[in-house]
Amino acid sequence: MYNRNEVFDDGILKYRVARADKFVLEDDGEKSRRMKKALIKNFGAQEFSLETALTCRAASNFLREKFLEEASLSAILKSFDGMKLSDVRLLLSELPNLLALPYPAVKEIRAASIQIISQTMNFMREHKFWQDYYILEHTRRLLQSI
Predict the structure, then answer these.
(1) Relative to the CA of 86, which of 49, 70, 128, 129 has its CA 20 to 30 Å away?
(2) Alpha-carbon span 54 to 90, nearest angstrom
(3) Which of 44-48, 49-53, 122-126, 128-132 has the lowest mean pLDDT?
(4) Residues near 99 by beta carbon (within 8 Å), at least 6 away in sequence
(5) Rounded to an integer, what distance in angstroms lies between the CA atom of residue 88 and that of residue 128?
(6) Is residue 22 part of a domain?
(7) Would 7 be classed as within a structural domain?
(8) CA–CA separation, 129 vs 41, rounded Å?
(9) Alpha carbon distance 69, 124 (integer Å)
(10) Quick check: 71 and 107 in contact, CB under 8 A?
(11) Burial of 69 by CB count in 10 Å (0-12 exposed, 13-18 middle, 19+ buried)?
(12) Which residues contact 59 (CB under 8 A, 6 or more apart)?
C-alpha cells in the first residue's frame, strides 16, 4: 500500500558492463569443442546408465564423428549390466535406431539385447506379466532372425 516505487534504484546498472564483458555467445565451433570435451569425459566413466549412454549417442550423432559414435555404442554396451525393467523398455524403443547403424559394435548390441530380452522374459514369466512376455518373445525372435 505504501510502496509505490517512487524512488528509482539504478544500483544494478553498474553490473551490466561487468556482465556484458563475461557474457559471450559461442560460435558453432566452440559449442562442438565443448560438447566433444563433455562426451570424452563421460566416456571415461566406469559405469553408465542406459539413458546417459543414449544421450551421449545422440550428441555424438549430432557431431558426426565416427570415433565418438563408436564410443557411444560401447557406452551403451557397458550400460547393459544390471538393467532395470524401465531400462529394458527404453532399450527396446531405441533398438531399431541402434541396429540400423553401420558399426561393428551393433552386432554385439544385438547379441546382448537377445540375452537381456531372454532374461527379462524369464522375470516376466515368473511374475506373470504375460502380455509383455509375448511382446518380448516376438522381439527376440525377430532379432534372432536378422
Answers:
(1) 70
(2) 9
(3) 128-132
(4) 106, 109, 110, 146
(5) 17
(6) yes
(7) no
(8) 39
(9) 33
(10) no
(11) buried
(12) 35, 38, 39, 68, 72
* Percent of the chain whose pLDDT exceeds 90: 12
- SS3 call for 104: coil
Rounded to two decimals, the pTM is 0.66
Residue 90 lies in a domain: yes
Q: Give Cα separations from 112 to 62, 109, 119, 139 (angstroms).
A: 25, 5, 11, 13
Question: What one-letter code names the amino acid at 45?
Answer: A
Grid cell in block for residue 50 = 542406459
Q: Tell me if 99 sits within 8 A of 146, measured CB to CB.
A: yes
Segment 58-107, tens digit of pLDDT: 888 888 888 889 999 998 988 888 888 888 888 988 998 999 999 999 99
On whether residue 102 sits in a domain, the answer given is: yes
Q: Which domain holds residue 39?
A: 13-145
The C-alpha angle 55, 57, 63, rounded to 5 degrees, equals 110
